[in-house]
Design a protein that fits this description.
Blueprint lengths: L7 H8 L15 E5 L5 E7 L3 H7 L9 E7 L2 H9 L5 E5 L2 H7 L5 E7 L6 E5 L14 E4 L4 H12 L8 E4 L2 H9 L5 E4 L3 H7 L3 E6 L7 E6 L1 H5 L1 H23 L1 H12 L3 H10 L5 E3 L3 H16 L55 E3 L7 H6 L6 E2 L5 E2 L8 E4 L2 H11 L23 H7 L4
Parallel strand pairs: 2-3, 2-4, 7-8, 7-9
Antiparallel strand pairs: 1-3, 4-11, 5-11, 5-12, 6-9, 6-10, 13-16, 14-15
Amino acid sequence: MRRHVVPAALLLPLTLLLAACGGNSAADTAGSGTDGKGSLTLNVGDQKGGSEAVLRAAGELKNLDYKIKWSTFTSGPPLLEAVNAKAVDVGGVGNTPPVFAAGAGSKVSVVAAWHGTSKGEAILVPKNSSLRKPEELKGRSIAVAQGSSAHFQLIASLKEAGLKLSDVKVKYLQPADALAAFTGGKVDAWAVWDPYTSQVLNAEQGRILADGDGVVNGLSFQVAAPSALKDTKKAAAVKDYLERLRRAQDWVYRHPDAWAKVWAKDTGLPYEVALASVKRTNASRIAVAVDKPLIASEQQIADTFTELKLIPGKVDFAAFVDTRFNGGLPPPPLRPASTRTPEGRPSWFPADRSRVGWLTGVAVREDPAPRSSWWKREQHRGAGARSPRGRCRRHRRWAGGTVQRLSPAAERFRAGTGLRGAGSRTASGRRLAVPVAVADVRQGARDALPAR
């Protein structure tokens, strides 16, 4: 059987990208420099191609009245070790490292969250593999970084397929080693995240057997040191820093090509790989509130790893969050564990891409302006409720909502049918009663999108 080997030149930039959801690799705390001016210094933990790069690209490092001292880490766990040691005031990680930090009793607080698609978190198999569905992984060897978001995505995907982690042969490898093992034919599959997913797909060295969309919660976090939050001036700097990050992420959504160029230059990845990763994962992220459903979703991750004895003892994740920076952010689009996706997939640990359309990728944030008495009266009524003018409101929650952001697929769909007047039809031929939002045509959206 012919095996493809990745050139060493391609492995080098990938070793720099043990992303925020990475495993137990060592830290590279060489500072990237300092921005801003003033007597106060905010120590920020970052990763290659992370917060510093996106803030600089979006122009959000201008007019700082405090200093940001950057320290670069290779992954989330060592960054959180630095937060625990008070060497870092705040830093970005994925959805799983905070769980392990909480399990170790570290002094950390989740202060901000982002939600996006999990299509970049995938179980990859070689292009010529005989494996066609996750159920066939039983007895096969799978590479994954221990304690990473991919670790949990593997567990969740196996459970959805009726398998347990013990049904497969897990090989705990960091991404650079896992990539070599995968392309060398030493493992049957690889559970990983972007940009590794995009790297393999772009090189035509593998294909996706299963992804995390609708299976894992799609969250990433900024985590702060409690000691920094007790300092009034530093807490104010953290608040400003988070607001800049949120604006920068909005810039990424509006300028995916520009961000891909910056990211490729910063990480050494080929532009095509960076762009694919941005469009698949990075550009889908929206800032969300750190609220009870979010805490519950992370608690499920913690309980899962506790049951597998990968975390010693019970973890109370709620004790490791600080909600003071939520502002008017929308809640994360997390659904109860008993629900199903529109395709009928069981959502053991689900997070659809938005609150109004799992397939459309529409992100809706309710208008913060005060509601009229009609809105207050009608917003929780079922399909068929009518406006003061007698128009039928087909979807009860989103009449009057503000569409903040659409995925490229949703943009294409909206351009064709989504916001047209009464009498127009969806892709499936259904008549639109009112032109209020893409939520009104979610039933027809599936027909408008390309096959997954």
